[in-house]
UniProtKB/TrEMBL annotation:
Pfam families registered for this protein in UniProt: Annexin
Protein's name according to its UniProt entry: Annexin
Free-text domain note: A pair of annexin repeats may form one binding site for calcium and phospholipid.
Organism: Champsocephalus esox
One GO cellular component term noted in the UniProt record for this chain: plasma membrane
UniProt keyword terms in alphabetical order: Annexin, Calcium, Calcium/phospholipid-binding, Repeat
GO biological process terms held by the UniProt record: negative regulation of coagulation
Superkingdom field: Eukaryota
A molecular function (GO) term: calcium-dependent phospholipid binding
Keyword Magnesium: no
Keyword Transferase: no
Length: 317
């Protein structure tokens, strides 16, 4: 069993009835006790939040999320609603919003499809069908095009194959080189097939072989040989193969360290990684940017929204 790397863990003496009442009281009467709400919900796992939701409905005859929405506002409300959503449904809703809004939010498609496991992707496809009565693949196809679309569809199948022997490592590295740096123009096919369907352990060895054989990182070749969303997706896949926490540390840094905060990205990463690898993301962030994720969030956000994000971050490093 691998050590638990989330910052939010199941609350030990959990009592759903007790928590439902605390939330009810926090919302009753004049004014809302935001502190109580955020401290309670950020210290419960998502499964526990679902239990609280069920008890709340049974006791009070109304939906907890609707009740919270009517009391809260702004970014804080969005963050609390995200925390109350089961992870798979949350991913599905983020993809739906990215596809159904005005224009396509490619960075959301790229982030989710490059970073989730095959099993997570299979479940996201099911949730998308249940929650939005739609086919994720069909919606992606109607909103994207070209090689970018094809790699997204490959990733959507959520199946990276087993049983590629050692002899295929150099072969794959050579195929990627021959398709890009090794020729005039670029043959995108091998990039789609190799990066979209090989297992992570195999791909890591392929990247090492590529560097050894051709003296360059695969990322540098991708940047030279491809453009646009296809390039961004390839780079995200390569980064996630190397290190998912590092990929998210970079995403968090980008969401905060420029003019204006990209709150939807900040929120999505903090919520969706809080029970998976937030501790590793914090370590990568500190190593890469020399500042702790905690202080960076502190400088970039404010109010109850900030407090809740800091609880999800979980520590100062």
């Amino acid at each position: 069993m691998m050590a638990y790397r989330g910052s939010v863990r199941p609350f030990v003496n959990f009592n759903a009835e007790h928590d439902a009442e605390i939330l009810h009281k926090a919302m009753k009467g004049l004014g809302t006790n935001e502190d109580t709400i955020l401290m309670l919900l950020t210290s419960r796992s998502n499964d526990q939040r679902q239990d609280i939701k069920a008890v709340y409905k049974k006791t009070h005859g109304k939906d907890l999320v609707s009740a919270l929405k009517s009391e809260l506002g702004g970014l804080f409300e969005s963050l609390i609603v995200a925390l109350m959503t089961p992870p798979v449904s949350y991913d599905a809703s983020q993809l739906h919003k990215a596809l159904k809004g005005i224009g396509t939010e490619d960075e959301v498609l790229i982030e989710i499809l490059a970073s989730r496991t095959g099993e997570q992707i299979t479940n996201i496809v099911k949730a998308y069908k249940n929650d939005f009565n739609g086919k994720l693949e069909k919606d992606i196809i109607s909103d994207t095009s070209g090689h970018y679309q094809r790699l997204l569809v490959v990733l959507l199948q959520g199946s990276r194959e087993d049983g590629l022997g050692e002899e295929n490592i150099d072969k794959d590295a050579k195929a990627l080189f021959d398709a890009g740096e090794g020729k005039f123009g670029t043959d995108e096919e091998p990039f789609i097939t190799i990066l979209g369907t090989r297992r992570v352990e195999h791909l890591r060895k392929v990247f090492d072989a590529y560097k050894k054989l051709y003296g360059a990182e695969l990322e540098d070749s991708i940047e030279r040989e491809t453009t646009g969303s296809f390039e961004n997706l390839l780079l995200a896949v390569v980064k996630c193969v190397r290190s998912v926490p590092e990929f998210f540390a970079e995403g968090l840094s980008k969401s905060m360290r420029r003019a204006g905060t990209d709150d939807s990205t900040l929120m999505r990463i903090m919520v969706s990684r809080s029970e998976i690898d937030m501790l590793d993301i914090r370590t990568c962030f500190k190593k890469k940017y020399g500042a702790s994720l905690y202080t960076t969030i502190q400088e970039d956000t404010d109010g109850d929204y900030q407090k809740a994000l800091l609880y999800l971050c979980g520590g100062k490093d």
